[in-house]
Amino acid sequence: MFDMAGDDVISFGLGEPDFQPPIEAINAFHQAMLDGHNKYTTTAGLPALRKKIAESWHHLSPNLDENNVCMTMSGTNALLNIFASLVDPGKNVLLPEPYFPLYGPDVKLWGGEARYYQCLFENEFVPTIEDLESLVDDNTVAILYNFPSNPTGATISIEQRDELLKFAQKHDLWIISDEVYDRIVFDSEHVSFVGTDDDRVILINSFSKTYAMTGWRIGYILSANNEAMHQMIKLQYYITACSNDAMQYAVLEAMNVADDYPDQMCVEYKARRDLICSRLNAMKGIQCHVPEGAFYVFPRVDVPNMNSQDLAIELLKGGVLCSPGSAFGPSGEGHLRFAYTISQEDISLGMDKVEAVIKRLRGD
Ligand SMILES: Cc1ncc(COP(=O)(O)O)c(C=O)c1O
Known about the structure:
alpha/beta, Aspartate Aminotransferase, domain 1, Aspartate Aminotransferase, domain 2, three-stranded antiparallel beta sheet, 14 strands
């Protein structure tokens, strides 16, 4: 569908910020290269950056230090590394659905089975404990939670987090918490799994969304479990040896001097979210939750006799690119994903086009 999109198409397709990284980080990257930071680093990464990251979680888990952090070349790298550490053939992992599409294949790569739990529109895209209970068995080693979620934008309350935590503890599961959107949360505080179960929680995070650096490929794994960290750092050596040298200085500078950068982006994201949700909810046949995080909306769209892929193709012909919900798993069917990583002006123009296409298809 990306290939089919012409130049004049308004694209809600890509899950990538339209901002640039903070200028301080770009300058620090340049300076670090000039200063000779163009070499291998230790496998776990620059100690000063790991310390800074550990400290950024002290409000939830005050004993974390640099030994609890391993720099990776993106959240994608972190995911692969964690699954490589935890999954053996014959074991299974519980994964959300609709999902970020890498989870399942990552589990299968190491011979494991991906078992999907549903996060449905009628439950505000949060799983039910009954559903989780029906999937878990003696071979389940881990459960992955992703809040704020891609593709739904869903977040959880502290009470919901605690229920999900209790479920995992009851079955002695590792909790892999993908919180790459932790700094893109609108009307409330981000609810993390960090600081809840030091023995079993492994966090994935990334600077892709936090500082709009998707192309820089830098993220990290954090866990209070020293043995887990030890194993994952060993694996990191075999996967990429280490992260990028100069870039780690740049991220450290961003954390030191531009910590409010994500908050500034959030002001704009929130205005866009309000705009797109009010436009979608005003259209006949569309229902949209107002998400509390990330930069996606995942409305339910009712056009009789048309699946989400055909609908996305019709929208593309009408000048708008979005993702069919089925691309994120079977329970995404009946939905579309719009990434609001474009200007408010383009969102308005795009919504005019969506409205015209849906009206025509529904015969309203
Ligand atoms: C939920 C989720 N996890 C992980 C990632 C990976 O991010 P990156 O590899 O850019 O750090 C993404 C990227 O879109 C995502 O949406």
